[in-house]
Amino acid sequence: MKLTLIGHAAILVETRGVRLLSDPWWQGPCFGAQWWPQPKPWLEPLSEAPPDFIYLSHGHGDHFHPGTMRRMPKTAKVLVSNSIGLAGPVADMGFDVIALAPKEVREIVPQLKVEVSPVIPERGGDTLLVIDDGNEICFNLKDALHAALKSIQEQVTDDLTRRYGTADYVFCGYGTASHFPNCFRIPGKDDYATAARRQRHFNVAWASIVAKLEPRFAFPFAADIAILDHDLLWTNEPVHNADRPTLRFRTMHPDSPTNVLDIAPGFTIESGTVTREILFEKVKADEVAPTEASDAVIPSDLALQIEAARLDAQNIQYEIKEEADLQEIIDMGFEAGFT
């Protein structure tokens, strides 16, 4: 099994002659242009051959991103849970959809089995993916577990271990998602320390989940974003730099045999051997700072649309050369349903 981090929650898994891509997001921002992929995704492997399958974990814009999905080949079959309401919207985009019931194990090609299950089956929501190719097993936990109640984390990890044993690879999210209370300025509040403390809570959750599962390898992911809002730009450094999930794991579980790696886009591992070691580098505010207004070419007749989509020139990180480029980003903001 070969696994490559494309960026954020997008992982390319290559095994049994097929390519399975999860949660593709790179074509523009999401959440009304508030979130941008950072660092930029590593797309080179996707130029070699199209994915045969795409897994969509849930409906949040950084996981089901219409602008990116529009560019995916319609030959790819899309794997979703049948309990979270994604099958219809994805089918409407022209894809063949494979909707799996909770804990249903499906052989999608010979000797390659997958499971797509919501953490709380009766409530839907975030899902996880299990990939079993007969030689190795990967748990792709997405956002499904690290923000859940401790009791739910224990229930799910116990169930996965009971049914699958020890996984070879675990990808688990650790992001804060909501930046509350960073978005509030309160007299006497230490903004940096508050942001770091909130992130540390999720890093501890990541470490605890990995310790319960005891895989061969574990990777934090699904938090490669930059917030470019003027008033929240400062949060990028404490959220990403002050405390890392892998360091937290080593502090909490120094004798664990699990190999934890703080990966970045482009990282690749195959059959237990790291073949491309691209690791996390500290975020620098000046490197994710918004483009100055004078650097962006913005047609005047789009000014009202830009305002409506909350996409002022200082929130646009991508290079804009012509009106069509800007219009595409604006359309994506509206598509995401958060403008």
Describe this structure in words.
The protein is α/β, with parallel strands linked by helices and 339 residues long. It has two domains: 2-289, Metallo-beta-lactamase, Chain A, CATH 3.60.15; 290-339, no CATH class. It has helices spanning 44-48, 66-69, 87-92, 150-164, 191-213, 236-241, 245-252, 285-288, 303-308, 323-335, and strands at 2-7, 10-15, 18-22, 35-37, 53-55, 77-81, 96-100, 105-109, 112-120, 124-132, 137-142, 169-173, 217-221, 225-227, 259-260, 268-270, 273-276. Helix content is 27%, strand content 25%.
What secondary-structure arrangement, pairings included, does this model have?
Blueprint lengths: L1 E6 L2 E6 L2 E5 L12 E3 L6 H5 L4 E3 L10 H4 L7 E5 L5 H6 L3 E5 L4 E5 L2 E9 L3 E9 L4 E6 L7 H15 L4 E5 L17 H23 L3 E5 L3 E3 L8 H6 L3 H8 L6 E2 L7 E3 L2 E4 L8 H4 L14 H6 L14 H13 L4
Parallel strand pairs: 3-5, 5-6, 6-7, 11-12, 12-13, 13-15
Antiparallel strand pairs: 1-2, 1-16, 2-3, 4-14, 8-9, 9-10, 10-11, 16-17
